[in-house]
Structure formats: C-alpha cells, structure tokens
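Encode chain A's predicted structure.
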Amino acid sequence: MAGIKTIPPVPFSHDRSPSKGEATRERILEVAQISVLSKGFAATSIEEVIAEAGITKSGFFYHFRDKNELAREMLRRYVAENDRLFDEIFDRGRELADDPLQAFLIGLKLLSELARNLPGVHPGCVIASICYQERLFDREIHMLNASSVASWNQRFLGYLEKIAAVHAPQEQIDLKDLANMLSCTFDGAIIMSKVLNDPTHLERQILGYRTFIKLLFSQPQQDRTT
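Encoded structure for chain A:
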C-alpha cells in the first residue's frame, strides 16, 4: 500500500534530541528514498546518496553494510511512517464517531484531504518500487515487502469487520477483497496521477472508494425508521 510521503519522519523520543549519528542515518534514508521514488533502486547509486547527503563514504558504510541493507532499512522506515499515518487518521475517526461506519468514513475523508494537500503529484511508493525490481533484493526484503502489504490489508479488514457487525452490507461481498480494494485503489490512483500528471486522481479515487463503502453499508431508505 502506498503511503503519503509528506508526513515528517518517525520522530525520535521526546525525551531527547537525536544524536548526530541518528540524524545522519535519517538523512541517508531520506535522500535514498527520494531518489528511489524518482528513478528506481537500480538507478540509485551509493555514490549519489553519499554526495546528496553530504557525508563521506566511510560515513555511509558506518550506518549501512551495503545497498541491500539500505533498501531494507528504507522499507522499514517507510512502513513505520505509513503505520503512524494510518493510526493518526483512523484513530481520529474513532474519536469523532462511535459508529464504526461513520468512523471509517471520516478516516477516509481525512485521508483524501491529506492527498489533496500534497504539493504536487504523489512521489510514489517504496513497496511498489521494490516489487518492480524484485530481482535486486534478497529474500528478507521480499518477505518484509509482502508482510507490510498484508498488514495494511489486515488493518482495513479489521475496520470493515467492525462495520459489518453493525451494518449488514447491501450486496454479498468478501470483506477481504473489500479491504484489499483500498490498497489497490490507492496504488492505482498514484500510477494514474503520475502518468497523466494530474494530482487530483488520488483524492478523487479515495473519495470514490468512500462513496462505495457508504452505499454498501447504508440501510436502504425504505427500511429506515424515524
């Protein structure tokens, strides 16, 4: 699942400021991610990352053994950022509504607003970048990539199961497919936005999914009681 890469990096502990080493490591990961999203992992060289981060070669290898380890840690960082983003957005929905359907709809609305406020076309998805060039990576990275997507799908499934326990869907549908649909909608919208150079596609597709959820779980008008 593609995350929105405008949120700040995962913060360090509030009890202390990041050390120089932690700040350097974070800078390397940030530079590498921007490059990978822009032109792919194969075209991103260690030398380029070193130059852009303003460090020495020995400084790079102090933090990362090789390019494969850089990819692994970049992926972990990316997943953590998106996990935090989803926590914040959908927790906010639950704070604003007791009904699970309304809470999820609020969360999707907040997600669409975040997409609207991007400074331009969404930069892309680290998970997709790794998937497209899978032969470059070891088994651990493949497993981490797959487990990350499965985790997001499971998260969305949890929201939908709570909704279905209160609101019966108006059409027979596999909730797992419905959960996976959000990830597919998001990634597909990112691709469409980049290909057509139109950043509005991401917001509109999220809102389209939101409308589908609302219609699927809303009680038909004639069955509603006043």
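The chain has one domain: 20-219.
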